[in-house]
Structure prediction request, 101 residues.
Amino acid sequence: MIGYPGVAVLDAKGHVVQHPAVRQPGPGTSAPVPVTLVRIRPGQRAKFLLASEEVFPNPDCQSAYSGSRLSVYPPDQTVPIIQPVATQFCDLTVGPVQPET
Prediction:
């Protein structure tokens, strides 16, 4: 696979509560992460960086979003991976998929 995953915060009913994460080459870091081809075999994993603005108090985050699930679409896939979450988010950014080392 190559590229960025699609990531969104969902409520308990499966509705998106915050717009999907914005693609950024190095979310939460000072250096960009390269977009590279990642080959994984059964049982192997890949990773990506997901960042959120500091929630409160922060004038850049006027409203935080709470959700109960995180929806992740791997690059070029049409079925999401759903993971439970219990935190608040604000202005999500996501980096490209990378091999897990």
Q: What stands out?
A: The two ends are 16 Å apart (CA to CA). The chain has no helices and eight strands. The longest strand covers residues 65-73.
